[in-house]
């Protein structure tokens, strides 16, 4: 029996996670020195979840995926698949498949034969192969193209062939390492929607590695943001975008404005940061957050949450003055870069809904305002709600 059969399960099979990493560390030797690529990672990925590992190059996300797949072994810690310990079990004996950016299709084989390859190696009966390949080609929208060869297909179609080949073996989990990286922007956006549809239809756990924030936000049920081998934040796309837990996450996920200041007043569950005459930033204090007068804090606010005015705005929300340094027209929106009175650079996105005219020109004095609930403290004092 294999180790996956012998190892005891970690609880009730009905509630077991698809994948679990417990204290996983990965060290490499480089020029006589030890380099720690993954630093004590703990992760739990649910059954049927679309889970993304997101981060810049060199953050450890691909190394983490390779340890799940069995292509690398952790220096410390354990990897579990469906409650069974698989640390030390070779890749071909783990019930997962992997899809690479290069697709790795056989150019001399037809689409049908590429998809059927793994089933033939397992000795599956011919009638069963025909049925399962046909079903999978329907799911990936390639029915009727069975006789074509990869060289006769577009990049997106080749990607779907690679998916069908991986899924036809009915793995418990599918690992995807930047699979859309070779496609142009429009096709990549189309394939993001297709991948999510396919994942929902087959119900298989997907673990997706990417450095593209848009991909992760579009497709994922949850995202693990990695930085320098460590887990920076784990949550839903909305949580991570709206409530970044650190300066790194705020800057890496989309565009974010990082502001700082001294707390002038704390009252009614809100902190007020005072600037020049008439200026203030109001920050709601979420549960577990404690600040006091005179304390220096950092916060983030997204560009689309900010309104730009040529006159001082009314209301009791956040409002600061600045000077427009750049105006960029993007068709559906206009981006304004503003230098505040405190010297901070702020980006504002405005939708071109009512007028094609710019609100302000470069060099104009303006006011920026936003609802206090869109200010979010970051760092140790910014507790995640």
TrEMBL record:
Top enzyme category: translocase
Alphabetical UniProt keywords: ATP-binding, Cell membrane, Membrane, Nucleotide-binding, Translocase, Transport
A single GO molecular function term of this UniProt record: ATP hydrolysis activity
PROSITE patterns assigned to the protein according to its UniProt record, in alphabetical order: ABC_TRANSPORTER_1, ABC_TRANSPORTER_2
EC number: 7.6.2.11
GO cellular component, one term: ATP-binding cassette (ABC) transporter complex
Catalysed reactions, as listed in the record: ATP + H2O + polyamine-[polyamine-binding protein]Side 1 = ADP + phosphate + polyamineSide 2 + [polyamine-binding protein]Side 1
Transmembrane segments: none
Keyword Membrane (UniProt): yes
Pfam families linked to this entry: ABC_tran (PF00005), TOBE_2 (PF08402)
Domain ABC transporter residue range list: 19-253
Keyword Nucleotide-binding in record: yes
Complex formation: The complex is composed of two ATP-binding proteins (PotA), two transmembrane proteins (PotB and PotC) and a solute-binding protein (PotD).
Function: Part of the ABC transporter complex PotABCD involved in spermidine/putrescine import. Responsible for energy coupling to the transport system.
Name of the protein described by the UniProt record: Spermidine/putrescine import ATP-binding protein PotA
Protein's organism: Thermomonospora echinospora
